[in-house]
Automatic annotation (TrEMBL):
It comes from Tribolium castaneum (Red flour beetle). Residues 113-281 form the PITH domain. This is Thioredoxin-like protein 1. Residues 1-108 form the Thioredoxin domain. InterPro entries: Galactose-bd-like_sf (IPR008979), PITH_dom (IPR010400), PITH_dom_sf (IPR037047), Thioredoxin-like_sf (IPR036249), Thioredoxin_CS (IPR017937), Thioredoxin_domain (IPR013766). GO terms for cellular component: cytosol. The gene is AUGUSTUS-3.0.2_09487. Keywords: Disulfide bond.
Length: 285
């Protein structure tokens, strides 16, 4: 059964965010005098029992004025979603359907649980803007989107073994590693990685440009084990492109069953800095 944690003060709130680590946190900023807040409260309780791997917090804005002010809450109810102590989305108003949709968007999949094994990082799939992703030389039947979700099919090349994969994020992220599942013979081998390109590179440019990193993958790497990147080079990524030059067997068809990008969103606000300059509890900000 899900449990909603009632927050007492700012210190308690920060502790719960830290304890949640990469799990989704859903914070309900509410007030006892707010009618819509009271109407959606039973729905919030039901959702906490349905999405048991998420952390559900309830914050009374009158009792926790400092937290409400620091999180920019001005209307109730406001639901704020966090991953890795980072605010990833906000929903204002008592809309049960919209609330559950947001939870589903950031909740993650069973595959995402494996990402938790990479300490302090998560599967960045919820932050991928699929409409702005692109793959050159993909098969008509086996598209890029098939490999971005576990169990969603697979990506396969068309005319030859090469692929260019372009993935865009809805906010800047840090990228720590990759997890790739692919057949031992058809999986990618030599991969060149580029970031923050204004448009998708073509094959000539991808072959000639200076890459941020080059990988030579082994069959063991294609079993979903973390493939570490040069983390210092991937600290502010809006888009990432992969030029897959060949596959393990040298054949004409390259296949990727699942591609997971592991990292964390970049927080646009440093909560610690805010805490140092905030006034006393109860003061207006």
């Amino acid at each position: 059964m899900g449990t909603i944690k009632v927050i007492n003060d700012e210190s308690h709130f920060q502790t719960e965010l830290a304890n949640a680590s990469t799990r989704l946190v859903v914070a309900d900023f509410t007030a006892s005098w707010c009618g819509p807040c009271q109407r959606i409260a039973p729905i919030f309780q039901q959702l906490s029992t349905k999405y048991v791997k998420a952390v559900f917090l309830k914050i009374d804005v009158d009792k926790c004025q400092e937290t409400a002010a620091m999180q920019g809450v001005s209307a109730m109810p406001t639901f704020i979603f966090y991953r890795n102590k980072t605010k990833v989305d906000t929903l204002r108003g008592a809309d049960p359907t919209a609330l559950e949709n947001k939870i589903q968007q950031y909740y993650g999949s069973e595959e995402g649980e494996e990402a938790d094994a990479v300490a302090g990082h998560m599967d960045l799939q919820p932050f991928i803007m699929k409409a702005q992703c692109e793959c050159l030389n993909e098969s008509d039947e086996h598209l890029l989107e098939h490999c971005l979700n576990s169990g969603g099919g697979y990506l396969q090349s068309d005319c030859d073994e090469q692929l260019i994969i372009s993935i865009a994020f809805n906010q800047a992220v840090k990228i720590h590693s990759l997890k790739i599942k692919a057949p031992a013979d058809k999986g990618p081998k030599n991969v060149r990685i580029f970031i923050n390109q204004p448009r998708t590179l073509d094959f000539d440019l991808a072959d000639g440009y200076t890459s941020v990193q080059e990988l030579q993958l082994t069959p063991e790497d294609l079993e979903g084990n973390p493939v570490n990147l040069r983390y210092v080079k991937f600290q502010n990524v809006q888009n990432i492109q992969f030029f897959i030059k060949d596959n393990q067997s040298g054949g004409e068809v390259t296949q990727i069953d699942h591609l997971a990008i592991i990292g964390s969103p970049i927080s646009t606000t440093n909560m610690g800095d805010f805490k140092r300059v905030a006034g006393k509890k109860g003061e207006s900000h």
